[in-house]
Amino acid sequence: MTGQRRIRLFLDSNVLTGGILSPWGLDKATLSLCAAKVCRLVLAEVVRDEVEENLLLHAERPPALDADQLIEDYRHLIKLTNPEIVPYPDKDLVRLNRHLIRHAADVPVLLSAMASKPDWLLTHNTKHFTNAVAQRTSVRIATPAEFFRALSALFR
Amino acid sequence: MMTRAELSNRQSREKRDGHREFHRHLSLNDVLEGFLENGKSADQGSRNADYADMRKRLPQSKPNRRRRQGHKSNADKLCPVHLLPVFFVLSAKTRFVQFRPNRSLPSRLAVTGQRAMTFAFPKLIPWLAAKPQLGWRRILFRGRIFLPMATRNPTLEYLTTTKIGEKGQLTVPKQFREDLGLGNGAPFAVLRLGDGLILLPEQQRFEQLCQQVSSSLTAAGLTSGDLVATLPEARNQVYARRYGKKAPATALRRRSRSYRGK
Question: What are the structural domains, with CATH classification, of chain A?
Answer without folding.
Answer: 7-153 (3.40.50.1010)
